[in-house]
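Late entry, evening session. Most of the bench is empty. Finally got around to the prediction I had been postponing all week. Sequence below, unchanged from the version circulated by S.P.
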Amino acid sequence: MEEDRLLLTREERDRLKVMHETLEGHLTRKQAAQQLRLSVRQVRRLVRGLRKKGDRGVVHGLRGRPSNRKIAAATERKALAAVRRRYADFGPTLASEYLAKEQGIEVSRETLRQWMMAGGIWRSRRQRVEEVHLWRERRDCFGELVQWDMSDHDWLEGRGASRIYYVALIDDATSRAFARFLGHDSLVENLRLLWTYLEGFGRMVEVYTDWDSLFAVNHGRAAQAAREGWGERPKTQLGRALQELGIGWIGARSAQAKGRVERHFQVAQDRLVKGMRLAGVREIAGANQYLEQEFLPLWNERFTVLPSSPTDAHRPLLAQHELAAILSQVESRVVACDYTIRFEGRLYQIARAEVVTGLRRAPVRVEKRLDGTVAVRFRDRYLKVSECELRPKVLEGSAASGMRRQRSGGRYYDWNKGFDLKKSVPLWAAAQASGWRRELE
């Protein structure tokens, strides 16, 4: 009974019915070819097959047989063994790339996915969209808008002694990436990264970031007033630097709004982490070397697109854009009467030759630069300053403070020693005894 059972698809059942009509003489071969949308020559083949094999003549001859292009079972076993040994947590796409690169096994990602599912290494999962966000069209030119963000992830998977941070700048028009691993997500490290980008590409038109405290002041009355539309939001050090460079700033209201850099982080947390694991990276220097030599070239080659306009919107650095002065920590101080200023608990003396009219009690710009030096600017010129010792403070219980207490208290002097106001002569009696009335007369 099992041998007589024949499984047919719907198309094959329809074809079998038409072919029976043809064999019985109800349809010509030309009419059958028109109904089945086949050539007359193919109908003749089907007629010969039905006469020779019966109803099995409409079934394709390769059904149930292995494909002539099927990969050998030994290759499949070798690939799965390599995946279990080195790429157990890799996805099929990434695993197929490393199999070709390191093991010399050329296999498509879909074939490997089927192998991994059959071997229990990979589970199929349904893709679903939980929330729909409106799509924003890319900018036209390279350098017109750059998305800037940081990803806090265990990039070295516990191999390093310290934690590292991944900061990326993604061009909105092309998705081209510029990134570095930093030891700290601090102002100084981000300023150094921006300096490197500016020297390599020039000044972008705008940057698109989140509302982190590096980019925006989120607390205080001024920030609250700015949110309510009553004033301008105060600038952070990084925001001031962008303004002095002529670079606009846009704050994203959600993570989905800066989706290009977020998707870059997703790819990096998969491909970059596993690549550094296989390369044995253990410190930030090796991580940056792998990033610049392996991952970023791969990203910029495979995951970028051509901009709609070939124009490069980056603007060159001009003479007034002194990066050492702009990319620094800038504060305002007032010059004291002795031509000194205080900054970060230190006292700086302005050189005598630098003293000009209007300098005393005037505000000056103090720049703490990335190399640790301090520069002071008054109006359009820099002043030569030198660090000097702070004035000694009067300590509690010192001789000077004791002398002040003696003068103010008076109890340490003996001119009123033994005097008691209650036992003394009344004031009117003392006045009468002094003869003050006779003096008036």
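Two things to note before I forget:
The chain has a mean pLDDT of 86.
The two ends are 158 Å apart (CA to CA).
Will write this up properly tomorrow.
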